[in-house]
């Protein structure tokens, strides 16, 4: 995408052209004169920051999640917040499946064995995993990404069950059956999280939920780290309640709990859910288009929900 094509003439764009995101100081310094800022999940947008950005009219978050943005503080300041749902669904679902397969088939351990020169030849009992066919996948949250995961899991022969917030049942879903959270925890061989990060979902999965899971269940998290109580997850792994985990997100990113790093049965990725060329290009143009709509006085397409 060429940003100039989206914004048109008469608009100045300041591109932060670095591999890393801006520091808070850089964001304030460069954002002071801006009417719109395109942000990422790594930028913390809070009241103190907003106070230093007097010209700001819109935060266009280039992500579907926006738990890094204090939406209430933005509203109080009259700053509109938009996000980019729908454009990273397939990429994130692909990554959830990659983590699921990596855990089920012990890909991380096998790769390390070969690379470190520990592969001494084929053995009938080496690194045995589990096949997905016939296993039950439980999806917590059933939005766009969960549905895309369900479609993929169906192709692998999995039975898919899903619980939704408030346990509102859904009907006519070709790939998943609605269950309560309690049923999901008790029945799933693999659990994949697909709820947004928020106060309401913080530690949705903690000690009591781990205790209700089947022994040996695998947990996949491509949603937000705050949804899981990480200390409780480490304890569940240590006592074998959890048979493995595939994680792309962490409670205090970029910090990763040392108890997770220490384990062979945990696959750790650095928040790569939307990290494909296709998704990132769409995220950038979607965010930029909504930023421009607001600056021109038009309604944005993807205002964050109330
Ligand atoms: C999102 O869009 O919320 C992702 O976490 C960013 O990669």
Give a structural overview:
Helices cover 35% and strands 13% of the residues. The protein is of the alpha/beta class. The chain has two domains: 3-87 and 276-296, Rossmann fold (3-Layer(aba) Sandwich), CATH 3.40.50; 89-268, Rossmann fold (3-Layer(aba) Sandwich), CATH 3.40.50. α5 packs across α7. It is globular. Bound molecules: (2R)-2,3-dihydroxypropanoic acid. (2R)-2,3-dihydroxypropanoic acid is lined by residues 41, 63-65, 88, 273-274. Belongs to the D-isomer specific 2-hydroxyacid dehydrogenase family.
Query: What does the average pLDDT come to?
Result: 96
Low-confidence stretches: none
* Approximate strand percentage: 5-15%
Largest sheet: 7 strands, parallel
Helix proportion range? 25-40%
CATH fold node name of the largest domain: Rossmann fold
Give the number of domains.
2
SSE pattern = HHEHEHEHHEHEEHEHEHEHEH
Total number of helices: 12
Q: Which class do the helix and strand fractions yield?
A: alpha/beta
Strand order of the largest sheet: 6-5-4-7-8-9-10
CATH architectural arrangement of the largest domain? 3-Layer(aba) Sandwich
Ligands, ions, cofactors = (2R)-2,3-dihydroxypropanoic acid
Instruction: State the end-to-end CA separation.
Output: 30 Å
Domain D-isomer specific 2-hydroxyacid dehydrogenase NAD-binding: 97-273
Pfam families: 2-Hacid_dh, 2-Hacid_dh_C
GO cellular component, one term: cytosol
InterPro entries: D-isomer_2-hydroxyacid_DH, D-isomer_2_OHA_DH_cat_dom, D-isomer_DH_CS, D-isomer_DH_NAD-bd, NAD(P)-bd_dom_sf
């Amino acid at each position: 995408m060429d940003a100039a094509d989206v914004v048109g003439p008469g608009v100045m764009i300041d591109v932060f052209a670095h591999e890393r995101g801006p520091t808070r100081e850089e964001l304030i310094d460069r954002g002071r004169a801006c009417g719109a800022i395109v942000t990422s999940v790594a930028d913390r947008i809070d009241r103190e920051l907003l106070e230093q950005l007097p010209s700001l009219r819109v935060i266009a978050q280039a992500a579907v999640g926006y738990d890094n943005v204090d939406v209430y503080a933005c509203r109080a300041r009259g700053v509109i917040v938009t996000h980019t749902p729908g454009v990273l669904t397939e990429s994130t679902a692909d990554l959830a499946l990659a983590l699921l397969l990596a855990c089920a088939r012990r890909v991380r351990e096998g790769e390390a064995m070969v690379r470190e020169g520990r592969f001494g030849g084929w053995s009938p009992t080496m690194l045995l995993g589990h096949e997905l066919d016939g296993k039950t996948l439980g999806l917590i949250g059933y939005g766009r990404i969960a549905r895309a995961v369900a479609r993929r899991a169906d192709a692998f022969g999995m039975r898919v069950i899903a619980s939704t917030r408030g346990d509102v049942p859904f009907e006519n879903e070709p790939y998943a059956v609605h269950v309560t959270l309690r049923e999901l925890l008790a029945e799933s061989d693999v659990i994949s999280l697909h709820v947004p990060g928020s106060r309401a979902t913080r530690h949705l999965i903690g000690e009591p939920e781990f205790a209700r899971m089947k022994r040996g269940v695998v947990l996949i998290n491509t949603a937000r780290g705050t949804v899981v109580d990480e200390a409780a997850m480490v304890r569940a792994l240590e006592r074998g309640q959890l048979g493995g985990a595939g994680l792309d997100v962490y409670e205090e990113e970029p910090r990763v709990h040392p108890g997770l790093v220490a384990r062979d049965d945990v696959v750790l990725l650095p928040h790569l859910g939307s990290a494909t060329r296709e998704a990132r290009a769409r995220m950038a143009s979607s965010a930029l288009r909504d930023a421009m709509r607001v600056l021109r006085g038009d309604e944005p397409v993807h205002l964050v929900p109330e």
